[in-house]
Design brief:
By secondary structure, the chain is of the alpha/beta class.
C-alpha cells in the first residue's frame, strides 16, 4: 500500500522515512487562509485550533486526489496556540521575532491535523481524520542575539509557531508533553490509528528496507 503525502514539508517527509515509509509527495494547491476564512463565515464564528488543522488537512488531501493515485492520501496541517491565539507560519523575520519574544520561557500547544483518504482502483473511498496535540515549553534563557541568529537562518519563518524540534530550534525547547512527532507536524501514532481504521495494517506501508535491522 503506497502512501501519498499531500505536502512538501521536509520535516514530514523525513519523519515518514525514519518510520520506514517512502511516500509519494505531491504539492497541494490550497489557499489555506481562504479556506479557513470561508469556513468561519459559513459557521458564523471563529474556528477552534482543532477545527482549523483538520479542515486544512482535509482540504490538502482532497486537493491531490485524482487520476494516477493508487493507495492512501495523507493531508496534514499544524498550528501553534499561545494565550488562546492561533499562530501559523510567521513568514517574516519581524513576526517570528515577536512570537519568540512572547513565547520565550512559556508553554503553548501545537495542534496537528491529519486527513487520510483511501484512493484505490481509481476511485476515492473512505476517509478518516484526527487531531493530535502536544504542549511545548520554551527555554527562558534565550538571549536576543541568539534569537536573532536563529531567525536569520530562515528556518522559523515557514513553520507553525516559528520553531522546530527536529532541527535548529530543538535546543530552545525544554519540555514536551504528548507525542513528540506531533510537534514535527505529523503524529505517527495518530496516523497509524487512521490506517488501521481504514482496514489496513501499519506494516503494509513500510517500503524502505525495514528488514535490514542491526544484530
Amino acid at each position: 500500500m503506497r502512501l501519498h503525502l499531500a505536502s512538501t514539508s521536509p520535516a514530514r517527509l523525513s519523519l515518514l522515512r525514519a518510520a520506514g515509509i517512502e511516500p509519494v509527495t505531491i504539492a497541494p494547491d490550497v489557499d489555506e487562509d481562504a479556506v479557513a476564512r470561508a469556513e468561519a463565515v459559513r459557521l458564523g464564528a471563529p474556528l477552534t485550533p482543532h477545527h482549523v488543522v483538520e479542515l486544512l488537512a482535509r482540504a490538502k488531501a482532497e486537493a491531490v486526489a485524482g487520476a494516477g493515485i493508487d493507495g492512501l492520501i495523507l493531508g496534514g496541517d499544524s498550528v501553534f496556540v499561545l494565550d488562546g491565539v492561533i499562530y501559523g507560519k510567521p513568514h517574516t523575520p519581524q513576526r517570528a521575532r515577536d512570537r519568540w519574544q512572547a513565547q520565550r520561557g512559556r508553554t503553548g500547544t501545537l495542534y496537528s491535523g491529519h486527513w487520510l483518504i483511501e484512493h484505490v482502483g481509481g476511485r476515492v473511498g473512505r476517509a478518516v481524520g484526527a487531531v493530535a496535540e502536544a504542549s511545548v515549553t520554551f527555554a527562558d534563557d534565550l538571549p536576543d542575539a541568539e534569537l536573532d541568529a536563529y531567525i536569520a537562518t530562515g528556518e522559523p519563518l515557514f513553520v507553525a509557531g516559528a520553531f522546530t524540534i527536529d532541527s535548529l530550534g530543538a535546543p530552545y525547547i525544554t519540555r514536551i508533553e504528548g507525542d513528540p512527532s506531533t510537534v514535527v507536524g505529523l503524529s505517527l501514532p495518530t496516523l497509524r490509528r487512521l490506517v488501521v481504521r481504514l482496514g489496513y495494517d501499519w506494516p503494509d506501508l513500510w517500503n524502505r528496507g525495514t528488514s535490514a535491522l542491526p544484530d
